Every structure is written in structure tokens, then in C-alpha cells.
Amino acid sequence: MEILGKAKRVRIYVNEGDRVHGKPLHLAILELLRAEDAQGATVLKGLEGFGAAGRIHLSTLADVPWQLPVVVEWIDRPEEVERLAPRLRALVRHGLITVDDTDILLFEPHPLRDLAPTVAVREVMSREVASVAPSAPLPEVVELMLRKTYRAVPVVEQGRPVGIITNGDLVHRGGLGVRLDLLRRLERPELREVLEPLSRQGLTAAEVMTSGPVTVGELASLPAAAELMVRRRLKRLPVVDDRGALVGMVSRLDLLRRAGGGFGGKEPRPRELGLEGDQPIARVMRRDVPTVQPESPLAEVFQAVVSTRLNRALVVDRDRKPVGLVTDAELLERVTPALRPGAIRSLMQRLPFGRGQGEESLAAHTRGHTAADVMTRAVATVREDALLSEAIATMLRGQDKVLAVTDAAGRLAGIVDRADLLHGLISRGA
């Protein structure tokens, strides 16, 4: 039995007479899930039943209008359930909400989802955005960004974005010696040592931010937002209303998720959104792929990882078939504290690792000595003749940042990341 994917099933038990904001509660739940682009929900009306109060509700004429139990069942990706659970809980004041794991055997949605021909940014953006004031101390900004999954935070004054602080701003203007994704891999004493110079400098958000951030209106179309990101080489955009006030953030991943859709991206729908997803992935892939072999020594792996902006390298066997992936963060984890400053310097400044160190010294201060020792063995791949929409679905299914592109024989032909996929979606209209 082939399992398409894993999902969460949410059941919400309420009464037919429950209301919120002047409308039936079950309808308010449906509207929330629909507005947040959930995969779908079903309302089931009970015939008889009782709840915690112990009163049995019967399907008599007197009882039907107000008392029958109602169940809203919703099945979606685990991360979507986690994201929307607090808002559902806020709606349901009295009732029962359960969540359990479920397997997806079949997911074949209707080819056309009920969307406007051009979807607005506000239907895709993240609404819960953490921001800082211009006077915020820089260490507080770093701590905030470490707690969040995104790599940028808007700087807001009187509700309007006046700047944005990115990973690059922290490194180049703020003097942070380690990128955020690497910083997360450090132990607490090492983290304090890195952040201490920031406290001494006394810099604020206003002194580090990129002023006049590029923003997008909440009513702008997805192609417009995608084109803006590609043209300005941005990973995310603050979203503003017609008064210029910050109302959300939209990222490349948000756009790709909307274009991919589905539990496993089984039914991509980029054309429906005004985007193009029917060209072969070979047209947008890059062929300059950093590679090493399983037996390659760690110093060589470091060099491959820092050779491109991807900050990762593919491990291929002697037939050039992908067998693993190594990231900069994984390399940093394999180095003991004694060599970690040198490893960070190598990764940040793209310098050779271990220069001046003998092989015995490297072996004593690294956990793993070859690419095979440090690689992740699950490599997301896609055939070079696959459509762009299929590649997006594959990336979303595994939550990967890159895809290895292979030929018909499974040999490595190229690589794509999120920026490449987004560029491909707008390339015909750009």
C-alpha cells in the first residue's frame, strides 16, 4: 500500500446553535480555514448525541434548529495545523477539538480551485509578523530573529516599515561574525561569546537596518510580487495596506507553496495564479553544482560547500548519481569547540578550512573525516524533463531548499533552489 504522505486530522465538536460574531460557529470556522488556504474542511451534522453536560440531543423537530451536535473535520499538512490551531482555539469557546495523525492514500483535488484569476498577496502572506522599533538594541534583534524561522525583521515606526534587518545587514553593518543559520548551531556559551561584542558596540536597529525597504501592497498580484522579488533578488517582502502600514510579510516560500498546493504537491496550480509552471526544469536549473565524493576529506568538503552561494554541496558516487547532501551548518556541528572559530571563519569568508593544521590535528577535532560521515543521505531529486510545477511540488513535499536535477539514468545534471524556481515561474512574462 503506497502512502502519499502524512497529515493531521482535526475534529472540532460544537453545537448547531453556537454562534460567533453573529454567525454560526461552524461557518466561521469554515471561513477561517478557507481564508487561510487550508486544503479543505467538511461539516457533519449529528442525529443524536450528548456532550460533557450529559444532556442527550435528539433529532426532533423542536430540537433540530439549535441543539444538534456539529463536527467540522479538517485534514491538512502538520505545519498548517500547528499554525492555525491557536486561531481555531480562540473561536471555539465551548466544545472539543481533537488532533490525530493520519495517512494520505489519495489526494486528487479538482483541477481548478475556486480562486480569482489573479490571487492577491494578502491571501498568501504571513500576518503574524514580529517587528522592532528603530531604537531596539541590536542584541535584542538578533535574539528575536534566532527565535523565529525567518531571516529578516521589519523596523517599524508608527505602524509603517522604515527599514528591514536581514542576515546580511547583521553581518556587514552590525558586525555579527556568524550568519543566523550557523549561529543556531552554536552552544549557549559560544552564542554568548558571539553576541557580547554587539552589546559593547551599543548599536540599534536604526543603525544597522536597510532604510527605505522594498514593500508590496496587500492587493498586489502574486506575479507582481514574484517579479519584484526576482528583480531585486529578495527572499521576502513586507506587505503594506493602502495607508502604508505593515500588515504582513510574504516570502518566496509562501509563493511557491501557493503555486504548488496539495499535501504532496500532487496537483500544482501555478497557471491559475497567473504564473507559468509548465516548462521543463532543465530550462531554469544551474549546472555549476558543487560536488564531492563519499570518500572526500573534510577539508575538501568545506571548500566545495563555500564555493557557491548555496552553502551546500552534493555528494555523488563514481557514476555521478547523488547519494548525499552536506550543508555548512552540518559541517559546523562536526567541529569541536577548539576548531570552531577556524571553521566559522572558513564558512563566513569562504576560505580553505584546516590550513596550517596537520591531518592528525584535524582528525582529533572533527567528528567524521569524510563526506560520507557528515552528509544527509536523503537527497531530493527531480528529472530534468520534469515540469517546473512538479519540481515545486517535490521541494514542498520534503521541505527542501535545493533539488538535485538528474538525467534519465539518474546522473547529476544540475541543481535548483527556491530562487531558481520562482524565477522560472515568471520567466515568460518577465
Which spans have pLDDT < 50 for at least 5 consecutive residues? Answer: 61-65, 110-117, 262-268
Major beta sheet, strand line-up: 4-7-1-8
CATH topology of the largest domain: CBS-domain
Q: How much is the radius of gyration in Å?
A: 25 Å
Helix content: 25-40%
Distance between the termini: 44 Å
Shape call: globular
At CATH's second level, what is the architecture of the largest domain? Roll
| Total strands | 20
Provide the β-strand percentage band: 15-25%
Biggest sheet record: 4 strands, antiparallel
Q: What is the name of the CATH superfamily of the largest domain?
A: CBS-domain
Structural class: alpha+beta
Total number of distinct structural domains: 3
CATH class of the largest domain equals: Alpha Beta
Mean pLDDT: 82
Number of helices: 17
From the structure above, extract its key features.
3 domains, globular, CBS domain-containing protein, CBS-domain, 17 helices, Alpha-Beta Plaits, CBS_dom_sf, three-stranded antiparallel beta sheet, 430 residues, four-stranded antiparallel beta sheet, 20 strands, CBS_dom, N-reg_PII-like_a/b
Plain-language structure description:
With 430 residues, the protein is an alpha+beta fold. It folds into 3 domains: 5-104, Alpha-Beta Plaits (2-Layer Sandwich); 123-262, CBS-domain; 281-426, CBS-domain (Roll), CATH 3.10.580.10. Helices cover 33% and strands 22% of the residues. Strand 19 (402-406) and strand 20 form a beta hairpin. The radius of gyration is 25 Å and the shape is globular. It starts with a strand and ends with a helix.
